[in-house]
Inverse folding.
C-alpha cells in the first residue's frame, strides 16, 4: 500500500486562511469564528486552533493576508511616468476596496488589528503605507523641507475617504469613476505645485 502523504504545514495554513476569507467575504468580520472557518474548511475546530491558537490569531493572519493583497494591488509598472505610477497605485487601492469590502473593513475599520502598532500585522501595514510615500517621493514634487510621510498620510486620508463614501453609497456626484480621477488630478496638482509642510522651527 502506498504511504499516505502528509500535507505540508504551510499548505494547511493557507487552505484554512482561504476558507476564512470565504467566510469573511460572505459574512463580514463578525462572521469569522473558529467554528465557522472550520466548517467552511471541512475540518475540526481543533485544526484551526492548532494553526492560529485562537480567533484573534486567525483574524491577525487574515488581516496580514489582506494587506499583502493590497500591496499587490497598488503595485505599479516601474517604466511608467511617476505621476502615472501614483495614479495606478491609487486606482489599485480603490479597486481592492470595492472588490473586497469585508477585507478592506477588516484592516481599516473599527477594531482593526492594525490599532496595535507594535504588532507584526502593523509592520505589514506600514510597508503598504511606505509604498505610497515612496511613490510621492518619486514624483519629485515636494519642496526640500517637505515631509513625504505627512503628504502620504493626507493622500491616504483622501483616497480612503473617497472609497468609503463610494462603498456606503452616499456620493453626491453621478459618476464615481470620474470623481475619483478628478481627486487624483487634484492630489497630483497639489503635490507638485502647492504642497509644503511648514518647518515648526521657522514658526513664531
Amino acid at each position: 500500500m502506498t504511504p499516505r502523504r502528509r500535507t505540508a504545514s504551510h499548505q494547511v495554513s493557507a487552505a484554512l486562511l482561504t476558507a476564512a476569507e470565504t467566510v469573511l467575504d460572505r459574512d463580514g468580520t463578525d462572521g469569522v469564528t473558529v467554528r465557522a472557518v472550520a466548517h467552511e474548511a471541512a475540518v475540526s475546530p481543533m485544526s484551526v486552533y492548532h494553526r492560529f491558537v485562537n480567533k484573534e490569531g486567525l483574524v491577525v493572519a487574515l488581516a496580514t493576508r489582506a494587506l499583502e493583497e493590497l500591496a499587490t494591488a497598488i503595485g505599479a509598472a516601474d517604466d511608467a511616468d511617476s505621476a502615472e505610477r501614483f495614479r495606478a497605485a491609487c486606482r489599485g487601492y480603490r479597486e481592492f476596496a470595492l472588490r473586497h469590502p469585508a477585507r478592506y473593513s477588516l484592516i481599516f475599520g473599527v477594531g482593526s488589528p492594525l490599532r496595535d502598532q507594535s504588532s507584526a500585522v502593523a509592520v505589514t501595514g506600514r510597508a503598504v503605507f511606505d509604498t505610497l510615500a515612496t511613490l510621492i517621493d518619486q514624483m519629485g514634487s515636494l519642496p526640500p523641507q517637505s515631509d513625504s510621510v505627512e503628504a502620504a498620510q493626507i493622500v491616504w486620508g483622501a483616497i480612503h475617504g473617497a472609497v468609503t463614501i463610494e462603498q456606503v453609497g452616499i456620493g453626491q456626484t453621478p459618476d464615481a469613476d470620474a470623481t475619483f480621477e478628478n481627486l487624483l488630478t487634484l492630489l497630483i496638482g497639489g503635490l507638485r505645485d502647492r504642497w509644503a509642510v511648514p518647518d515648526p522651527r521657522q514658526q513664531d
